Amino acid sequence: MSIYKPKPGIRDHYNPLRGLSLARIVAMEEAAARGDKADLQWLWQQMQDTDVTVASAVAKRLGAIEALDWEIRTIEGSDAILAAEQEAVLRYAYERVQNLQEAARWVAFANFTGYTFLEKIRTGYGPFIKRLEYIPCQYWAYEANTKRWFFNPEARSGYRGGEEADRGELIVHEVASPLFKPICRHFFSKQLALADWDVALENGANQAVFMIGPPGTTPEKETEYMSMAEALTSNMRGYLPPGSDIKITDLAARSKLPYFDRIEYSDRQIVMAATGGLLTMLTESGSGTLAGNAHAETLAGLARADAAAISEVFQRQFDREILKAFFPGEQIAVYFKFDLPRAQETSAQLIEAISALSWAGYRINQQQLEEKLGLKIELIDKGAI
């Protein structure tokens, strides 16, 4: 059962994008630096929800995480028997977690938000965990002088004290420089350019028309001519007295100002920030070409770096609890490792390789073989044949 349950509050009725200004963003950043995280994290969440480039950049960065595979490795020089026992227990513990891939993705998401909190939902049997539930970042406050985190159930601004985070029931990952901070600045510049561009397009679609009356026009006639002018500019037909003239001001030129260039620049900066400066756009022309392969390799490199950080988080905050519970006083001989998925062999290729190893005198672990093949393996009773 979850002990960290967010409650309905002002966030359900407040859009931080309304009336947003650079001064407001700076004020939110300063409050967050003091530990008041709610406003800034709420802004970042809405930014991701509303901007296609931001959402796509985050999805690209984190997408490869879901394809990662995991394994339990032995620490070099450890006792073989102890390592085998610990591996069996730790593997069992990880297999009990229903959303391990999703949880790993949330850990990597801390690169953008600065921190991630996952609550350990227990199975009810010892220290084993059933799920790792993500708690959105706006529901946490930080006390800088004591370096303690507090649960802020209503995501209220200026939250102080309250329920301190129980680190034993949480998996927490903190990152010093959140990527959403520079991304938010470019997001704001992009929104200004889009708003100005819309105004320019609207003005450009409705030309300004000025009518010049004939010489000697009296005030009475000016009122009459004004009615004529309104009729003419509303796509009606009309007649002007001799000597009148019409001047049209072309406002369409305003819509040709470099708005698109500014928006494209902001998008590129957002993608660069999300990918550590390795990519300038989310797609490369020529799928399967050198450009496409380079793009895929870049994302794979980012996934590998994120995988290393994820592995360290789970080793400290998941492995130790399990192994200390079942092997008190013993050295830790194994560890959890996230890594890129290996090349997928067909069942026929695996069986052929296993047969060759068997002829060479090697024995394959049955449990690992069943995981690879996805089949339950049993020995044939030769006496029954």
The radius of gyration computed from the alpha-carbon positions, rounded to a whole number of angstroms, is 32 Å
What's the overall geometry?
Answer: elongated
Question: Level of helix content?
Answer: 40-55%
Q: Outline the low-pLDDT stretches.
A: none
Number of helices: 11
Q: What order do the SSEs take from the amino end to the carboxyl end, as H and E? A: HHHEHHEEEEEEHEHEHHEHH
Largest sheet, in brief, is:
3 strands, antiparallel
Distance from N terminus to C terminus (CA atoms, Å) equals 51 Å
Q: What is the number of beta strands?
A: 10
**Fraction of residues in β-strands:** 5-15%
Main-sheet strand order equals: 3-2-7
Oligomerization: single chain
The average pLDDT is 83
- Structure classification: alpha+beta
Helices and strands in order:
Blueprint: H1 22-33, H2 38-50, H3 52-63, E1 69-74, H4 80-96, H5 100-113, E2 115-122, E3 129-135, E4 140-143, E5 148-151, E6 163-164, E7 170-174, H6 180-205, E8 208-212, H7 219-233, E9 245-249, H8 259-274, H9 290-326, E10 334-339, H10 347-359, H11 366-373
Antiparallel strand pairs: 1-10, 2-3, 2-7, 4-5, 5-6, 8-9
Helix pairs in contact: 2-3, 3-8, 4-9, 6-8
